[in-house]
Write a structure and sequence with these properties.
Helices cover 41% and strands 16% of the residues. By secondary structure, the chain is an alpha/beta fold. The chain has a six-stranded parallel β-sheet, with helices on both faces. β1, α1 and β2 form a beta-alpha-beta unit. α1 packs across α7 (220-233), α2 (46-56) packs across α4 (78-98) and α8 (252-263) crosses α10 (301-315). The chain is globular.
Length: 321
């Protein structure tokens, strides 16, 4: 059996680090895993991508690298999100084709689905209407991966596919207040508030927005296991949603309360209703995933939050802040 050489772009980020951790116990002797980050190659530069592939000669690629950010970061930078992601994605897919890569799995997101839609959303609905205006640049760049995958398959027979995770969180996330997603942003905010204001009676943990929007969150280690499964077993060009079950959807208020519990925070929790909520919900169906993996066990949300908070408390000085 020939060796699989699996190149993971964005390999030093949230999901890449989780895959590295899972592979330590779930690796196979015929697999060689290579994790590269932005320091190893600028994926917006085609020559750099070709050099990367020449050096590693991958047979499989997990393409995680992307310019990403939360609601407020997206709203002011749609052109940057569009152009950078389009360039990276095109360079990875075209170079994979030229080097005869057997399978490419790219990472999409549930936030690229149409703004006006019916719920739950499923894999067939990605292109059914414009995305939410707050992140249209990122969304269209990601949607183009699905279009490209189908075109490469039609014209060249390539097995290029994509997975669509719901909101991911965990150790090694981006904890920068300006550009992070909601969970790491709130963890960082509460961590800083507790460090700055010693007296719990004077502490105020303020969450932007009403706290009412609903989200499905997947722990990075669970997502890592699913990516590894996809490399080994998933052979459809059509995308597949990687999400927790619909009944595991939580409100932003519940997220904040779990973070409060994980920190054992005794101060005030408040919500700034003058700030935007973004989309109210993005409920995704994981029915397709459940057909393949009916017994897959997701980590309990409270456990995953506690592990993430514990990791941040131990690694705050070296985390992406």
């Amino acid at each position: 059996m020939s060796e699989k050489i699996i190149l993971v772009t964005g390999g030093t980020g949230l999901v890449g680090q989780a895959i590295q951790r899972v592979i330590q116990t779930d690796g196979k002797s015929d697999e060689k895993w290579i994790f590269v980050g932005s320091k190893d190659a600028d994926l917006t530069n085609l020559a750099a991508v070709k050099t990367l592939f020449e050096n590693h000669k991958p047979t499989h690629v997990i393409h995680l690298a992307a310019m990403v950010g939360g609601l407020f970061h997206n709203m002011g930078n749609n052109l940057s999100f569009l152009r950078k992601n389009m360039h990276m994605n095109d360079h990875i897919l075209q170079t994979s084709y030229e080097f005869g890569v057997k399978k490419v799995i790219s990472c999409l997101s549930t936030c690229i689905f149409p703004d006006k839609t019916t719920y739950p959303i499923d894999e067939t609905m990605i292109h059914n209407g414009p995305p939410h205006p707050s992140n249209f640049g990122y969304s269209y760049a990601k949607r183009l991966i699905d279009i490209s995958n189908k075109a490469y398959h039609q014209q060249h027979g390539c097995m290029f596919t994509s997975v669509v995770p719901c909101n991911v969180f965990g150790p090694y996330d981006n904890f920068n207040i300006e550009s992070s997603h909601v969970i790491p942003g709130l963890i960082r905010k509460l961590h800083d508030e507790m460090a700055k204001v010693g007296d719990p009676a004077k502490q105020d943990f303020t969450v932007l927005g009403s706290g009412k929007p609903l989200r499905q969150f997947i722990y990075s280690l669970d997502l890592a296991k699913l990516f590894i499964w996809a490399v080994r077993e998933y052979n459809e060009v059509e995308p597949i949603i990687f999400s927790v079950d619909e009944e595991n959807e939580v409100s932003i208020k519940q997220v904040a309360e779990e973070i409060v519990k994980a920190f054992d925070y005794k101060g005030k929790l408040s919500f700034d209703v003058t700030m935007s909520d973004g989309q109210y919900k993005k409920t995704a169906s994981n029915a397709k995933l459940r057909k393949y993996l009916p017994d897959f066990q997701f980590t309990a949300f409270s456990v995953a939050i506690q592990e993430t908070v514990d990791w941040y408390k131990e690694n705050a000085t070296i985390a992406r802040n």
